[in-house]
Amino acid sequence: MPELSPAEIEALSLSLKIALWSVCISLPFAVACAWVLARVDFPGKLLFDGLVHLPLVLPPVAVGYLLLILLGRKGAVGAWMMETFGISVSFNWKGAAIAASVMAFPLMVRAIRLSIESIDQRLEAAARTLGAKRLDIFFTITLPLILPGILTGIVLAFARSLGEFGATITFVSNIPGETRTLPLMLYTLVQSPGNNAAAFELMLVLIGLSLFALALSEIIARYMRGRLEG
Amino acid sequence: MLEIDVRKHLPGLDLDITFNVEKTGITTLFGRSGSGKTTLANLVAGLDRPDEGRIIADGTVLFDKRQKINLPPEQRGIGYVFQEGRLFPHLSVEGNLRYGQKRASEARAGGVSFDHVVGLLGIGHILTRRPRDLSGGEKQRVSIGRALLAGSRLLLMDEPLASLDQPRKNEILPFIEGLRDELSVPVIYISHSMDEVVRLTDTLVVLDRGRSVAAGPLEEIMSRLDLSPLTGRFEAGSVITTQVEGDVEGHPLTLLRFPGGILTVPRIKADKGEIVRVRIRARDILLATQPPVGLSAQNIFKGRIINVSKGENGLAEILVDVGIPLWARVTAKSCLDLGLDVGKEVHLILKTVAIDGASLGGRRRMDQ
């Protein structure tokens, strides 16, 4: 395999950074949403469920456009963020991380929700009779038991974030060194003639990363299942 | 000790239970499956909520609809040993045991020490193991220990032996007796097994289709003919409390003293003076109007009939007072032929071999 060019290395490290942040941003919200969806019944739950899963079915370009309207420099939330915190997420890597986290969010929620639904709630009842309060139970019983689901969700969301393209290019454009992640770079290479070899190489890198992530998630899931069987 | 007066409507079961238990020791809730035993346990533990009524345990009001009191389970101080154990799979045995201990409030803590409980239950060698590596019997012992260490003032046990085979059951029973005899923890024991009931129970509460039909000392409830459809059709019988007189020299037999005289039973390992409970099945008793002669039976007692109840199945339940009431079951035909009626003097015959070792329950720990 030929060596990666500096531009490619830059895109790779940017991709990893963005994917990492994407996972960190979505994780707490994903756990909360998954818990609500698995355990709480309320009017409008179906709508809420739909909203959470929307990025899964909506064209990514539409999500990107929505983010642009909301979080762009002149967007409702974007302008407020700039004024209050002096933070801008338009056309920089932070915006790319947000776009990736929105797109990966449903996958993460799904994995965590499934594991919350599969745990034996009678164990939580047992913990109550032993003197534990609800929040205490969440951290000492529920969370350790859904750890496999959380780890699976993290790996899936990470892989999805690495591959994010449509929402990213719409929301934060394709700026080398700032928002040009691996998929955007691949797109750029394909757009201009004479880059077949480089594009092919990049594609291999993407395949390798994705396979690695999927294998990792499977290994984690197996290990945790073995540990938690009781 | 325990005051229950609750109503709850459930699909398929209308719970309406009222009873009062004053004695500590082991109170058994006995009834068929579907009679509301586990539901009642959940109400007492606070995992479920009655529609109406009140629950008072050990002087504390746990639930009172009218006073709007409903203590959450974590504040009730009631240890719950579940049928399936419910050990936390992500924690070691020690982690499970310490879970409740760490959370026991000041007021509840200080009852029993970790080492004492571990020693009593014989689980010192498995502290580092995970629940999945334990046998069924070990799981239940850990489960009992976990509930005890949470500083429980009362222990609820929901058929803790139901999923175990007989040897494992025999392994756990002495520990449950130990709770009462060594730690003086009141226990509410749920069961549908008459063997367990006879061996463990101090106070028996009989449940049927969501109602409490009787509550009182075991011997008293067991000698009530009207309860026989509930306390066991085939296994119906009396429970008597006896004191060991000694062994019969040269024979594998033991003599037990009870108010009706001396009972000869197959040899049991018990010291003279020890209190032993015996169950005598009604179907194992013969009645004779004349003193029997030339009979191989070792146990013959004279008494007077105090109650006769004829069932629809062609059988008659007869209660004979031989110093204490003993329950005999004969056919309605022999009842008629012999003229068995209240006030008549009869001789009651019991084969020694009809009393099997399993029905002999110790009031104190006893090795079979």
Describe the structure.
The complex is a heterodimer of chains A (230) and B (368). Chain A has helices at residues 6-39, 45-57, 60-71, 76-85, 93-118, 121-129, 134-162, 166-172, 182-191, 196-228. With 230 residues, chain A is mainly alpha-helical. In chain A, helix 5 (93-118) packs antiparallel against helix 8. The mean pLDDT of chain A is 90. Chain B has 368 residues and is α+β, with helices and mostly antiparallel strands. Chain B has helices at residues 37-45, 73-76, 93-103, 114-121, 136-149, 166-181, 194-200, 218-222, 228-231, 332-337, and strands spanning 2-10, 13-21, 26-30, 52-57, 60-64, 69-70, 78-81, 154-158, 187-191, 203-208, 211-217, 237-248, 253-258, 261-266, 275-281, 285-288, 299-310, 315-321, 325-331, 345-350, 361-362. In chain B, the strands form 4 sheets. In chain B, strands 7-8-9-3-10-11 form a 6-stranded mixed β-sheet, sandwiched between helices. A 5-stranded antiparallel β-sheet of chain B has the order 2-1-4-5-6, with helices on one face. A 5-stranded antiparallel β-sheet of chain B has the order 14-13-12-15-21. In chain B, helix 5 packs parallel to helix 6. Chain B is globular. The A-B interface holds A 120, 122-123, 125-133, 136, 140-141, 144-145, 227-230 and B 45-47, 72-76, 78-80, 82, 84, 86-90, 99-100, 103-105, 108, 130-132, 146-147, 150-151.
What's the helix and strand layout?
The complex is a heterodimer of chains A (230) and B (368).
Chain A lengths: L5 H34 L5 H13 L2 H12 L4 H10 L7 H26 L2 H9 L4 H29 L3 H7 L9 H10 L4 H33 L2
Helix pairs in contact in A: 1-5, 1-7, 2-5, 3-5, 3-8, 5-7, 5-8, 6-7, 7-10, 9-10
Chain B lengths: L1 E9 L2 E9 L4 E5 L6 H9 L6 E6 L2 E5 L4 E2 L2 H4 L1 E4 L11 H11 L10 H8 L14 H14 L4 E5 L7 H16 L5 E5 L2 H7 L2 E6 L2 E7 H5 L5 H4 L5 E12 L4 E6 L2 E6 L8 E7 L3 E4 L10 E12 L4 E7 L3 E7 H6 L7 E6 L10 E2 L6
Parallel strand pairs in B: 3-9, 3-10, 7-8, 8-9
Antiparallel strand pairs in B: 1-2, 1-4, 4-5, 5-6, 10-11, 12-13, 12-15, 13-14, 15-21, 16-20, 17-18, 17-20, 18-19
